[in-house]
Amino acid sequence: MTQDEVLAVFREAGAILEGHFILSSGLRSPVFLQKARVFMYPEKTERLCKALAQKIAAAGLGKIDAVVSPALGGLIPGYETARHLGVPAMWVEREGGEFRLRRFEMEKGARVVIVEDIVTTGLSSRETVDALKAIGAEVLAVACLIDRSAGEADTSVPLVSLTQYKVPAYEPDKLPPELAALPPVKPGSRNLA
Ligand SMILES: O=P(O)(O)OC[C@H]1O[C@H](OP(=O)(O)OP(=O)(O)O)[C@H](O)[C@@H]1O
Ligand SMILES: O=C(O)c1cc(=O)[nH]c(=O)[nH]1
Ligand SMILES: [Mg+2]
Fold first, then answer.
1. Which of 1, 42, 122, 173 is deepest in the core (most CB within 10 A)?
2. Which among 33, 36, 189 has a CA at the least distance from the CA of 99?
């Protein structure tokens, strides 16, 4: 899918929000891709994730044993992408703030692809890589629907993105005045009690 086609799916779902957003990394942005509004629609999710699975399959990663996604945002695209790859889907979730594969067993040396919804700084992806390496998995790549960094994020393993969409993000003490004038909201689940 082209960038225009992917963004059209997000736009049709009303998933491209404008305002003042606190991102998972703590950065601030005037644009938020509310992926949950896309994942409401199975046929839109299927279209995106089928295309992502095709990109993963074409990336020359060799045998893939499983997809693992970081909760919460990665759950639905991880499941749907795994369905098209024909492999099991698992997830890591936070326990005391750290991602852990709490509900599943994984064999040592299992060859895993991480599926994320959105990558901004790559922090959540790196946390997921670390959680999986700590239990002996071999992490082949991170895959995501939209890379907001346009290739600049550090995911610590290769990144396969369905598309890139460069969106501004600012340190909280370096906000442009028009952003600082708006009340900030934090849509994601990091640090939620
Ligand atoms: O590349 P990063 O800078 O880490 O940002 C991207 C992450 O932010 C969002 O998750 P968030 O922690 O907001 O929670 P969610 O998965 O529940 O949406 C998104 O789902 C990615 O996991
Ligand atoms: O960086 C993030 O936290 C983030 C950005 C975005 O556009 N959408 C999202 O779900 N998370
Ligand atoms: Mg997330």
1. 122
2. 189
How far apart CA 131 and CA 180 sit, in angstroms, is 35
**Pocket mutation for ligand 1, best pick of 24, 92, 114 (most atoms within 8 Å of C-beta):** 24
Q: Which of 23, 27, 124 to mutate to test the pocket of ligand 2 (most atoms within 8 A of CB)?
A: 23
pLDDT along the chain (193 residues), means of 10: 98 98 97 98 98 98 98 98 98 96 97 98 98 98 97 96 97 97 94 79
Q: Measuring from each residue's beta carbon to the nearest atom of ligand 1, which residues come in under 6 Å?
A: 24-25, 70, 72-73, 116-125, 153, 188-190
Distances in Å between the alpha carbon of 75 and those of 2, 82, 120? Answer: 23, 11, 17
**CATH code of the domain occupying 3-180:** 3.40.50.2020
Contacts of 168 (CB under 8 A, 6+ apart): 29, 30, 31
For the entire predicted model, the pTM comes to: 0.97
Helix axes 3-12, 42-57, angle to 10 degrees: 160
